[in-house]
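A quick aside before the break. I want you to see a complete sequence-to-structure record at least once, exactly as it would be stored in a machine-readable document. Don't worry about memorizing anything.
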Amino acid sequence: MPATASAPQPPGLLRRLAAVVYDALLLVALLMVATALLLPLTGGEAIDPHRHPALEWLYRAVLLLLTVGFFGVSWTRGGQTLGMASWRLRVLREDGGTLSWADTVRRLAAALLSWLALGLGWLWVLVDPARRTWHDRLSRTQVVLVDKRTSRG
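That is the input. The structure line, written in tokens, reads:
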């Protein structure tokens, strides 16, 4: 269905990937800070699963929680990460509502599948009539282009 003046337009692949790169840089920085904060527990050495198995599991849990939190806080409070806001993108549920934490987890798990399939889930936007990725469809969400006049809100 073509976008009308009242219906938000779906963005293309390049705009989506630009936001992903921006957010990946921010997320990597956040994960590096978390890693640095845990290094005193190992005397500054890398977290080794053979020497510190319990710490390895704690470390993995911290990284996972920070990743889910990074996206969850942004998506449940307005539908935009910093990268998405920079590229005027917003993620919404299919009904137009803001994502819940459950929606966030579903979307992240589905996005992982899109990446694990050698990025085919992302490339799907090029052939999908509604310009949606696999993870948009699997999580029942949509990414829309935010109008320049309303992008600050």
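Two observations worth writing down. The chain has a mean pLDDT of 93. The chain has one domain: 13-147. We'll return to this after the break.
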